[in-house]
Write a structure and sequence with these properties.
The complex is a heterodimer.
Chain A (H helix, E strand, L loop, with lengths): L1 H31 L4 H14 L2 H12 L6 H8 L7 H26 L3 H8 L4 H29 L3 H6 L10 H11 L1 H27 L2
Helix pairs in contact in A: 1-5, 1-7, 1-9, 2-5, 5-7, 6-7, 7-10, 9-10
Chain B lengths: L2 E9 L2 E9 L4 E5 L6 H9 L5 E6 L2 E2 L10 E4 L11 H11 L4 H14 L15 H13 L5 E5 L7 H17 L3 E6 L2 H7 L2 E6 L2 E6 L1 H6 L4 H7 L2 E15 L2 E17 L4 E4 L10 E12 L2 E7 L4 E5 L1 H7 L6 E6 L5 E4 L1
Helix pairs in contact in B: 2-3, 2-4, 3-4, 4-5
The chains are: A mainly alpha, B alpha+beta.
Chain lengths: 215, 343
């Protein structure tokens, strides 16, 4: 059980990191650029919000599975296979949790005055410097809020994870999966596990809420 | 560090097309009503707005250079100080972007803050600064990059009247010390005349008049400029001392002219009478009072008639004349007060 909790915390944190690295630049592009193609990108990025997670897992299998579009290439070129591994869990969680981060960061970017970036440019800052030293600090509360929501969503991820990564104790069995398994064998253990997950989520959200979401 | 620019920006329903030059050390003011395109021109110079034509600084074409490579300093109307950085870090931002080491950049920034008289506020965040202080920090931040050209967008517009006077005097000193050219945008004629060596009047995206304060105030060429400097202005065709400014209506002017001319005279030169004055047949006409407004110590009377005219009278005179909107009156201007110049 402790192994499942530890795996959940680890994978949720890694998934959040993946979402931050990919999601913040993507949100910047969505917020600042006016290319018509971005409507399609935005729809694609937010689709996991409305997609049943199990369907998301199937989609991931089709793309990253051993015979999937990218998966076969990854396997041939690098000998890397994502399904049914811990990395697969991270991928499944990141896929489902990404929209929470992107929506939050894009909102923060749209609310932030883009003219600060112009001011930075007149002072000699290139795009990247302006983003790193001006824009990112301005939207930090939005990024933090998005990261917390993203982390919480990743922590509770079930459908995509069990479809794409399976349910191997110690490797891909996260807390929600352990709860589901316990439910069939030992209802009391399932309730205890659920409470543990609930307490962990509430404590972390409450602790972070005071620091980030209220400002 | 001279500027030579021809800016062309097209938008739906609006075209900006103006040429602008500035010599090193010169302060040029773009003066015009709101919506004339002044700020757009400034943004085009800074590279924040796409423009046709050309922007040349010291003989170097900058048309395609992004703003970060132009070395043009900008003081924005609402300053845009980075809220998460202290005053010192704001000023050090430019030098840091140009590759100056951190300690050195901070020393230079403190030096600039000292020059604008804000050394003791270096650690404050922008929200802790007053409007006047924020304006100075913004100026120091722009100057700290040692710009080849300094641009100021309505530098005093966001300040209250009292702070404005102090800040204007301070800005004047700082601009005089700046070796590069300066272009400032304002809709306030007083700011323009106090701060600039040369005024460029912009209306509807085009330059309508260029000159120093004396030339602009004595010889306005559009109604907007005439209102700014408080003169009655008419355009007409001159024949000797007589200028036809409306159908069957001539004004007699001081100097003889021929052809298209402007005629200008101050509202204080207009005398009002209840009855037709005897013995001065020229430049006397019946008029109707359209509006009365307080103007300094006197009252400004807007009159309609063969030509619209503004007249300044003392409150006592207004009472004596029984002035009220709709009232009939006789207006008169001495020929010696009405001067004419080629249109």
């Amino acid at each position: 059980m402790l192994a499942a909790l530890r795996l959940s915390l680890l994978t949720a944190t890694l998934a959040t990191a993946v979402c931050l690295v990919l999601g913040v630049p993507l949100a910047w592009v969505l917020a600042r650029s006016e290319l018509p193609a971005l409507r399609f990108v935005r729809a694609l990025v937010t689709v996991p919000l409305v997609l049943p997670p199990v369907v998301g897992g199937v989609a991931l299998l089709l793309v990253f599975g051993r015979r999937g579009l990218l998966g076969s290439w990854l396997d041939d070129t690098f000998g890397v296979s994502l399904p049914f591994t811990t990395a697969g869990v991270v991928l499944a969680e990141a896929f489902v949790a990404m929209p929470f981060l992107i929506i939050s960061v894009e909102g923060a970017l749209r609310a932030a005055d883009a003219r600060y970036e112009e001011a930075a440019a007149t002072l000699g800052a290139g795009r990247w410097t302006a983003f790193r030293r001006v824009t990112l600090p301005l939207i930090a509360p939005g990024v933090a809020a998005g990261a917390v929501l993203c982390w919480a969503r990743a922590l509770g991820e079930f459908g995509a994870t069990i479809t794409f990564a399976g349910n191997f104790p110690g490797r891909t069995q996260t807390m929600p999966l352990a709860v589901y398994l316990a439910l069939e064998q030992d209802i009391d253990a399932a309730i205890v596990l659920s409470l543990v997950l609930l307490v962990v989520s509430v404590v972390i959200l409450a602790a972070l809420r005071d620091r980030w979401l209220t400002t | 560090m001279s500027l030579d620019a021809h800016l062309v920006v097209r938008r739906p329903g609006f075209t900006l097309d103006l040429t602008l030059t500035a010599e090193p050390g010169e302060v040029v003011a773009l003066l015009g009503p709101n919506g004339a395109g002044k700020t757009t021109a400034l943004r085009a110079l800074a590279g924040l707005e796409k423009t046709g034509g050309h922007v040349t600084l010291d003989g170097q074409r900058l048309d395609d250079a992004p703003p970060e490579h132009r070395r043009i300093g900008v003081v924005f109307q609402d300053y845009l100080l980075f809220p998460h950085l202290s005053a010192l870090e704001n000023v050090a931002f430019g030098p840091r972007c140009r590759g100056v080491a951190k300690a050195e950049a901070r020393t230079a920034a403190l030096d600039w803050l000292t020059r604008v008289g804000l050394a003791e506020h270096a650690r404050k965040k922008p929200r802790q600064l007053s409007g006047g202080q924020a304006q100075r920090v913004a100026l120091a931040r722009a100057l700290a990059t040692e710009p080849r050209l300094l641009l100021l967008d309505e530098p005093l517009a966001a300040l209250d009247a009292r702070t404005r006077v102090d800040t204007r005097a301070h800005l004047r000193t700082r601009l005089a010390a700046h070796p590069g050219a300066t272009v400032l945008v304002t809709h306030d004629p007083l700011d323009a005349m106090m701060l600039a060596d040369r005024l460029v009047i912009v209306e509807d995206g085009a330059v309508v008049q260029v000159g120093d304060a004396a030339a602009i105030t004595s010889r306005p060429r559009t109604d907007y400029v005439a209102r700014l400097v408080g003169l009655n202005l008419y355009r007409g065709v001159a024949h000797g001392h007589s200028v036809r400014v409306a159908d069957d209506f001539d004004l007699t002017t001081r100097d003889p002219q021929e052809g298209d001319v402007f005629v200008a005279f101050p509202p204080s030169a207009v005398a009002l009478y209840r009855e037709r004055p005897a013995g001065s047949p020229r430049n006397t006409w019946p008029a109707e009072v359209a509006a009365i407004a307080r103007h300094g110590d006197s009252l400004r009377i807007e009159l309609t008639g063969p030509v619209p005219v503004a007249a300044d009278v003392t409150p006592a005179a207004a009472v004596e004349l029984g002035l009220a909107p709709g009232g009939r009156i006789w207006a008169s201007v001495k020929a010696s007060e009405a001067h004419s110049y080629t249109a």
